[in-house]
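Action item from last week, closing it out:
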Amino acid sequence: MNTPQALAQIGFGEVRHTRHRPQRHAFAYPTYFLMLPMRSLRAHGPGVLARNRRAALSFHDADHGEGGTDSLAWLDSVLQQHGIDDAQGEVWLHTYPRVLGYCFKPVSFWYCHRADGSLRAVMAEVNNTFGERHCYLLDAPRYGQPCEAAKVFHVSPFCPVRGRYRFVFMRTDGARARTVARIDYFDSDRDDDPLINTSVSGELLPLDAHTLRRALWSHPAMTLAVIARIHWQAARLWIKKAPFFRQPPAPADFVSAPATSKPSPP
């Protein structure tokens, strides 16, 4: 099936994080990220994007999925395994690049669309600082409406592996293209009081020589800063005596099946 060509984008925006208990702990950082049309890149080539090669700012397929050379093929196989066979439109990958050869990607989002452009599925691909990865496959989400998935993967030693995530995704196109991905974490299934609110948002611009220079000049060590800030905030939580939870075994399944996700009331 021929998918209309879409052009790679880069987002400039902000990461926000607020923990509400036992003490309030909040921070916000400027950030940038890639928004890549994976089917178009396969059909028409990477353009200015340094893909699977060394560069100051680059994208490597091996940083996703099971570490293979074609991350889109991996995604399509996962969708097929879970009975999602109508996500044949564009697949937009929201992810951090490698910067100066290094990357750490706390979460990447694969937005999988039908041929008519409607959203069919979202894969939230999560990495922790212990070298583990897990994927939450959200079946039939809608832009602007919350959907949920049970938490099964250890991310932070200051959060238990229980409860659920609530996701909200928003995107606008046109002259002021913008994306927002929000994740609220509830450590109990019994109430609607989130422990943590997080979001990443940004303005989407064409990925070209000018925006690449802007990203590198404004944040020359951005992905190193991501991991440094994670450890700095962990130290602050330790000082605040946040509850500590030891790392449990990783879940047996690499991908949480769509049965674990469900629409949430608007």
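Closing note: The mean pLDDT is 94.
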